[in-house]
Amino acid sequence: MEKVHKENVADILPLTPLQSAMLISYLAEPDGNHYKEITRYRLEGNISMDMIAEAIQAVVIKHEMLRTVFRWHNLREPIQMILKEKPVLVYQHEIDQVGSQEQEAKVDELEQESFREPLDIYNNPIKFDIYKLRKDAYYITIINHHILFDGWSNSILLGELYHALCQLVQHKPFNLNDKPGMRNYLEFLKKRDRTQDLSFWKDYLCGVSKRTILPGIHYCPKKGTQESLVTHEEDRSLYRKVKAFSATLSVSAAAAFYAAWGLLYYRENRQCDVVFGIAFDGRPPEVKNINQIIGLFMNSVPLRIIIKENETIEALIHQVYSSLLMIREHQYLPFANIAAQSQMIPAGTLFDSVIVIQNYPVDSKLFTDDGSFTITLHSRKIATGARLTIEIRTFGGFFIDVSYQEQYYNEETIRELIDRYKEILLKMIEGKNRSLREVLNLEKLEKSRGQLLEGSDFFDDF
Question: pTM for this structure?
């Protein structure tokens, strides 16, 4: 446990709502992988490992959340402590002696070894690994706890690394002016009327007392929480179709993606009142320069969808969009306070799946004007700790990433679920004025299920 000298403390702040929830998860299993992120960038150009390490340190100096540690021992409330100076953990790996055919496998192996090592958010919630592939090609892997920053922050971090490296390559001095910090945002939260927010969630969740059953499984809890990730790189034309379709209804594409997920629940389990988690960016325009800050602003909140078979697709999507507009105004409470407004017991079981739309602005590839240097986002994944997390990424292509707990799902089931989800999306696009019953083809589904039961000896065992 490293001691912090008061002369090195730049600021002491409370936690944001989502940080508080993540800290509870961390303390329950400090050596676990919940909320750990791993992001890999590929760098090509006339650079060296020492230059990359120097650029990383320059970015850390500029952004306070990269110099932040967390404290909770013997404190009434946990805090985040921003340090004036914080040596960053940078590990260098030279694998250029390995054949090019084997390099990817070697990086994957070393990266996973690094990821499995516990992250100590008390002292070092972030670390960097640099892999030298050849004299002009490298990977940077960033492993951090999600308690530090959100997905939007990754685009800021990518841009900052790029500009720092450009300055080094061009032998220019660093611009080390500090970026805006978290204090103004926390002041914004402090001034909010919690009574109005609580009242909204109490009304919104009124009557929710039954967990929405995850599609395609029966609950068979087992010990252990092994988490796996399946990545689907999809045809980008599907995303273009969803955006165009949403535009005709004057709603966001997110509303269509969420509505389709709600319909998948209903198709599989016939629950008319569906609740699952969504993520809001949590960056209020009232806070100056909020989009330049690396930090955790997002919050996980419940989205409730009421399914009526005779309702049209258009009506369903407008219901979802209206909910999103209302939720946006009341998204800033800690999740525990939100969940407590429902009739769920315990409140923490409000939902088991989360769907995240990652559509923040990011240049997946940055390059100098003369083409002498490039930095590219290679991959990114996060272990959420949820039983099922769907992440839709719309930058650098169109991806549907699924993180799932192995005691509830296997890879085959996950791929089947995603195929059904895409099928519903396409059917929605084809018939906005058709009823949900028609779009889901429920008559055919019910008939086939009836024939299955009628022709089986399932009940003979009872």
Answer: 0.85
